[in-house]
Specification:
Blueprint (H helix, E strand, L loop, with lengths): L1 E7 L10 E8 L5 E5 L6 E4 L2 H8 L5 E5 L3
Length: 69
């Protein structure tokens, strides 16, 4: 498993804020689980890290930082 977090430099939506906004894990099969660290906690799953980046990357305003690399 690879641990990661989302680092948001600019909050385009005004909802989730900036800084470390979520933390997650990528499993050996590619699937990811991610927990939001914002005011409204939620746990979500995605079929791959590319989905996480496409949905939450906001054209580079949010970066995926892997902790295990």
């Amino acid at each position: 498993m690879r641990r990661f977090y989302l680092q948001r430099d600019e909050d385009a939506s005004g909802i989730s804020g900036t800084g470390r906004i979520a933390e997650g894990v990528q499993y050996a099969n590619g699937w990811c689980s991610m927990m939001w660290l914002t005011e409204y906690f939620s746990l979500v799953t995605y079929p791959g890290i590319d989905h996480v980046e496409k949905i939450h990357g906001h054209n580079g305003l949010t970066r995926i930082i892997f902790l295990d690399d």
